[in-house]
Amino acid sequence: MNVEETRLRTFTDWPVNAAVDAARIAKAGFYYTGHALEVQCFLCGVKISDWNYGDQAIARHRLAEPTCPFVQNPSSTCNVHLIPINNFGLASSSSTETSQDNNIVECQSTNPCQNKEPQKEYRTVSQRLQSFINWPISSIVSPEKLAKAGFYYLQQDDEVQCTYCGGVLKKWELGDDPEKKHKDTFPDCDFYLHQDGINKQKNSLYLTNVKLMPGATSNLSDLGIQIHTTPKKPQCATYEGRLSTFRGWPANIRQTPEILA
Ligand SMILES: [Zn+2]
Ligand SMILES: [Zn+2]
User: Fold this and answer.
1) Ligand 1 centroid – CA 32 distance (Å)
2) Structure confidence by residue, pLDDT tens digits, 80-108
């Protein structure tokens, strides 16, 4: 019943002459119990059965149960908004009862109806990156780092959630490393077990393909690999050895073998 469309479908026998429109009641978190005008909140369970003309469904909800999370902050619940479709008569696209920008609101780990499956929409870095619209603290922690560390933005303060373990992190400070914080806080997260495996595989594949080719030195030094070059003529590695090659060096040349060697 956290899905608005499902709630709306319970109103098939809702009296057509009822004072308040079914679409607005469903949008305010209620489903129809089937008795007279009685509806119930999917989250707090509060029931309302007396509806009057001009009633604001969400206002009635707030009045009946002020502590209901749906009333206090719908985006923090697992409610799934109905995406208004113009030809679908029941859906009201002109509703101003909620200020939600998003049609779909993700579940947080603290919700009783949390979905334990990884969030399919945020499986890739670029998908997660797209969630960081309006990220308020780019100068403190960059969306790129957070997305790479498995997080997407919950569109609330600086709260981010891991796609895989569902762990929520917030209150970011300058110098925080999302990857480290993720590993430290949620050490059992599948994301890192998975990533570590990939990295190990990549490294071993890469190293088996390394060949000491001429011109490849800059790449290798980038990798921290030092090329050890052995003398082409080992017998010339010492001063005495090199000096001995100057036998027959013309005596009238200014550069003496001692200088050159
Ligand atoms: Zn409620
Ligand atoms: Zn995680």
Assistant:
1) 13
2) 887 654 444 444 444 444 444 444 444 44
